[in-house]
Specification:
alpha/beta; Rossmann fold; seven-stranded mixed beta sheet; 3 domains
Length: 448
């Protein structure tokens, strides 16, 4: 049912999406839908809708208002767009046997998943149900597309890499020359179809940041940070601070749900985490819920959690400052040595933030795929794209709140061996003074 064709630009991806949509237009009742992210994308020269007019004029009937081709069978091919998340509901009463996403990485995973509900047929329409997509790497959906189809594909999904040489109608040498003027990352994406290259990547997460789970000392301060979601996931992150001020993210909870559903689970996790405070998104904490108190006043998310035993403090929610803070913590500093508890103890080039990857998989994935604010928007390059963060970056938002709490280094307890050694040395020093001082100036020994 699911198949994608993606990678290098110029591989004929839009043509492939269009050709697949037209495969069964001779079957009565067949309906196909091709989607772009915006209406302006639909009208681009060379896009599937423009190409359809080259291919189908005289072979079908075009309705400009509905953006639909109809064929004698009868059958239809419609072009649509999903600019806002809620635009999917414009198709909630429709039935299609083919849905194609042109440039899938421009869509959210929720939009893609929802359209499966529109993929159906009656028994009289004897065609397979197909979900198809084509895309270059990059874009707000780069992370989830890479994960779903390339990193960890399900058995019933197919991914076909696209390369420039796949399109015999393209003057490949000239196109390769034109791409040579682009930045290295963009060139890797468009020429080589490199899904590991990500233009606009906000963070660089490397092996230096990742650690295996280990026993945290009792004296380390521990706290949580939280980003709330009802239909989107709620994320709680567990943090520890060592004696040198290094931060360790060592636990997480990532699931949607009401405060009444989330709180009991997090309370049990707190027994394992032994955390002492929690910082959360101030805007979501202040949001009213449908529940009212005994005076008839609506409760906030913050009050709902408090009623279930979770006290959450309001964090600093300045996105630009939070992005800068996370970058500071992740920076590999040549003058900073790995801490004593780390396997690379004493080596230079350490960050200030370490993550237990197995305990925080969503956080690691989002750090790897978070895009910067696009160049055509305010604060471009200075913060994470808020549209992406609102749809995909809940663990990263929780990390911002935790980092902006700026916890101080844990206070190391005095070493009992050092304390005892200092006491013995002092007594020895006093005894030496006792025997080298004239008798008349000596103090009684019981005063030592």
């Amino acid at each position: 049912m699911e198949a994608g064709y993606g990678g290098a630009a110029g591989g004929g991806k839009s043509d492939a999406i269009l050709a697949a949509a037209l495969q069964y237009v001779d079957v009565p009742g067949y309906a196909a839908l091709i989607l772009r992210r915006s209406f302006s994308d639909l009208a681009l020269p060379g896009a599937a809708m423009a190409r359809s007019k080259e291919w189908l004029t005289g072979k079908g009937k075009w309705n400009e208002r509905e953006k639909t081709w109809t064929f004698p069978a009868p059958a239809s091919l419609t072009f649509g767009y999903l600019e806002a998340e809620d635009d999917v509901y414009r198709y909630q009463s429709s039935e299609y046997q083919y849905i194609g996403f042109d440039e899938l990485t421009q869509f959210s995973e929720q939009q893609y998943r929802y359209l499966f509900s529109r993929l159906r047929r009656v028994t009289e329409i004897e065609v397979p149900l197909r979900m198809r997509w084509a895309s270059n790497p990059g874009g707000v959906g780069h992370g989830w597309v890479k994960r779903r189809f390339i990193d960890d594909p399900a058995e019933d999904t197919v991914f076909v890499p696209a390369r420039v040489a796949d399109n015999p109608g393209l003057e490949a040498d000239e196109y390769v020359t034109s791409l040579s003027h682009l930045p290295e990352t963009v060139r890797q994406q468009l020429l080589d179809g490199d899904w590991g290259a990500f233009e606009g990547m906000a963070f660089q997460l490397t092996a230096e940041h990742l650690v295996e789970a280990f026993e945290l000392p009792d004296g380390w301060y521990r706290f949580e940070s939280m980003d709330y979601g009802l239909t989107n996931p709620t994320c709680f992150l567990a943090w520890a601070v060592d004696y040198d001020g290094n931060l360790i993210s060592f636990g997480s909870y990532y699931r949607p749900g009401l405060p009444s559903e989330t709180a009991p689970i997090v309370l049990k996790l707190r027994q394992l985490w032994r955390t002492q405070a929690c910082w959360g998104d101030p805007s979501s904490l202040a949001a009213p819920t449908s529940t009212v108190n005994r005076f008839g006043m609506p409760l906030t998310i913050e009050q709902e959690f408090a009623d279930h035993g979770l006290q959450i403090a309001r964090a600093n929610n300045e996105p630009r400052a939070g992005y800068t803070r996370l970058r500071e913590l992740l920076r590999l500093d040549p003058g900073r040595r790995f801490p004593d508890w780390h396997p690379r103890r004493g080596e230079p080039g350490a960050p200030r933030w370490f993550i237990v990857e197995r305990a925080c998989p969503e956080l690691c994935e989002q750090l790897r795929t978070a895009p910067l604010q696009p160049v055509d928007r305010r604060w471009a390059g200075e913060m994470i794209d808020p549209l992406w963060e609102g749809a995909h970056g809940h663990a990263l938002a929780a990390a911002r709140y935790g980092a902006m709490s700026r916890p101080a280094p844990s206070v190391a307890p005095p070493d009992p061996l050092e304390t005892e050694a200092e006491r013995v040395a002092w007594l020895q020093q006093q005894a030496l003074k006792q025997w080298t001082t004239p008798r008349e100036q000596r103090r009684p020994s019981y005063q030592l």
